[in-house]
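Q: Structure tokens for this one, please.
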Amino acid sequence: MKVDNFNGKLPPDVAAQVGNTQVSYPEGFDTVVSGYDFAACDGKVNFDKMLSEDSLSTGLQATMFGRAIAELKRMIEAKLNGSLTEEEIKKQREIPTDNWQPTPCTIFLSYTSNLISGGTRESLRYLVQHKMVDCISSTAGGIEEDFIKCLIPSTVGTFELAGKDMFEKKLNRNGNIVLSLKHYALFEDWVIPIYDQMLKEQDEGTKWTPSTFIHRLGKEINNPESVYYWAWKNNIPVFCPPLTDGGIGDLLFFHSFKHDGRTISMDIVQDVQRIMEVAVKSKHTAFFLLGGGVAKHHVLNANAMRHGGRYSVYVNTAQEFDGCDSGAPPDEAVTWGKIHVKAKPVKVFAEASLVLPLLIAQTFFKYQGEFEKLLPKDD
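A: Here is the predicted structure, written as tokens:
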């Protein structure tokens, strides 16, 4: 078999194209790709270096994760270290939320119901318990399942559990998390007497909105395991336009049979006005948006009233090819004035249960002592 000799030199026309061409990288694109080196860690993993410093140079979604940490720190420092003029304080005092505490940067948190169903609930509760966020947007399941978990725990199953078998056993599956009809029966036993009292108060002149309804349930649950107990205690408004799209709505339907077709009425328009006033009257706004859907868009839409937020981090797995807002990247929000044109938003393509605890560990957790100074003083 004949083998051609090769002297290691490329033909001149090829050599001109590969290996010998001077490359000039644009500014900001000269970081050498490298990741965390376990061989050099001397038997002890440096998680701060791995998650914050080395993730930035790893590439792919690790780099976006590192950028999200940097952006979250920027919004936190804007909140903790910023200043307010007397006029700005006066303006925020007009926000129609009980005991609103003026802040240089209002942080909006949004999340979908699966994050309350899962163990990420504890991470979300941590943020609310320490008043690290100022305003919340969620979905129906993201409200009711917090209260249900105070009454009975859910358990871990598998994604492969057969629907027919589970139905016959009165079990429900949320991904690989298992609930049962007992969960909702206990919730009914707890919440219907509260509905009765709220209806009585409505007859006496009280006007309910989804946010005041959630505020009341947070007070009634009186359980420090609850996200909304801490939202009530720390005067953090919780908005949920689709509040009736779940067990809460089902039980409002059943409740009406006790009262000749009457039950609690809720004014969603008043809540729209309220969240928009929070956005418009804040000095600066920031977003930490977990998942998509109405929870995400409710925050973004409110901030279009002020030409957008200054700081933004998205965490979701949705893509933009179908035109849904869940998958819309931050730059699309810029076109609507929902994110400010001078902002530096970040989107991490990741499932939040994987990355949320890590993001909090590298950001909010490190500022806990400073946030505790903002907590309401107990009488």
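A few notes: Residues 115 and 258 are 33 Å apart (CA to CA). The beta strands are 106-111, 135-137, 155-156, 171-174, 177-180, 238-239, 285-290, 311-316, 346-349.
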